């Protein structure tokens, strides 16, 4: 019996969580379209995956530009898996968040996944199978004194996750999310440097998460082992103290 190799588009695969997701999917035999803006890091990732016996190609697109998002979907073609991972975060108070910053966060975090699902999910539904995983954030459900725009952009993605599961689920397309807590990535390190560890202290694991710990949840959600999981968001956040009774 011949089995067809599955294909996946992973956005924001040039760094952090997206990079780990791409590597885990490639290791499980999925052919990758890896996306980012930085062609050098894109080429490096493709080289690593290829050297390990996997298949990958890099496509660049600035997700703040809707035309580039649609061109990315076109370039990716008829993928079986879409992982909406690329995201940006500005941890500023509401008064300090400019309209430009608000729009930018919503463009990358919310509008780009929306356009990619609109471009790719109907094809999955027509073929009768597909899986979509959206990377959300603790900020979507646990408000903090800073980062309200970021939290709102991710809360919208959690609602969209349930909407899309409703819209496409009966036609064989599963849509789920993973909500990471603090994870050690290029993004968090750029923000906090050596202090990045401090983020983990607020979790019940008392440590920061690693990209691989999120990637393994994504891999589960795109595999047949999770075939009856649809329209939900899995928390991979080390455990939130506020979830416990006092
Ligand atoms: N790290 C955490 O603690 C944490 C916690 C909760 C949720 N998350 C979510 O997890 C996802 C990944 O986070 P991360 O920390 O791994 O991110 P990261 O290290 O900052 O990497 C971000 C990725 O997104 C891409 N990207 C950023 N802006 C883009 C744009 N305008 N157009 C196209 N690509 C763009 C980057 O590509 P280039 O570098 O090539 O430009 C890079 O590949 C995000 O959605 C984030 O909100 C992260």
Automatic annotation (TrEMBL):
This is SDR family oxidoreductase. It is an enzyme of class 1 (oxidoreductase). Pfam families: adh_short. The keyword Repeat does not apply. Its EC number is 1.-.-.-. Gene3D superfamilies: NAD(P)-binding Rossmann-like Domain. The keyword Cell cycle does not apply. GO terms for molecular function: oxidoreductase activity. Keywords: Oxidoreductase. Belongs to the short-chain dehydrogenases/reductases (SDR) family.
